[in-house]
Design goal:
alpha/beta; Rossmann fold
């Protein structure tokens, strides 16, 4: 299966990322992306298909990386706790890892200052209140909310002001 075929298939399958696939492809186009939370690689597929310059995914657990991603020279996966790595600069930071208030706040506090754009998944509904509360507590006047989507558990995108 090609990366394109994987992307199109994932866009058609019911999932908590389905509606966000084109959005992630767009915000990552030509950008260096850091992703916290890889799981099955759905969002990573969107970033790579969209034409990101580089994608570094971080996940606390060993993940089964599909060959369409594993064989892409732009992609790398670090199996580690995001709070134990030294953060690096990114154009785009995508957070979909630890969904607790403390986990999200810590990821924002450590990684967002080095990013131009921050996108967070699971920002709508009542299931992941820690994500939404940490997001509202962390972002200040030096950031502008540029998009907020309520489908597929929510996606909120912030840009440095």
């Amino acid at each position: 299966m090609s990366l394109r075929e994987r992307y199109l298939t994932l866009c058609m399958q019911p999932s908590d990322m389905k509606d966000h696939m084109p959005r992630l492809a767009e915000i990552g186009r030509g950008m260096a992306v850091t992703e916290i939370g890889f799981r099955t690689g759905v969002s990573a597929t969107a970033f790579l298909y969209g034409g990101c310059k580089r994608l570094v995914s971080i996940d606390i657990a060993e993940c089964d990386v599909p060959p369409e991603l594993r064989d892409d020279a732009r992609f790398s996966l670090k199996v580690a706790n995001s709070n134990e790595l030294k953060p690096w600069k990114s154009d785009v930071l995508f957070i979909d890892g630890d969904h607790s208030y403390n986990g999200v706040y810590s990821d924002l506090d450590r990684w967002a200052p080095l990013a131009k754009v921050v996108a967070l998944h699971d920002t709508a509904g009542r299931k992941w209140l820690g994500v939404r509360e940490a997001m509202h507590d962390w972002f200040g006047a030096d950031w502008t909310k540029i998009a907020e989507y309520h489908d597929s558990h929510g996606l909120t995108i912030w840009q440095r002001a």
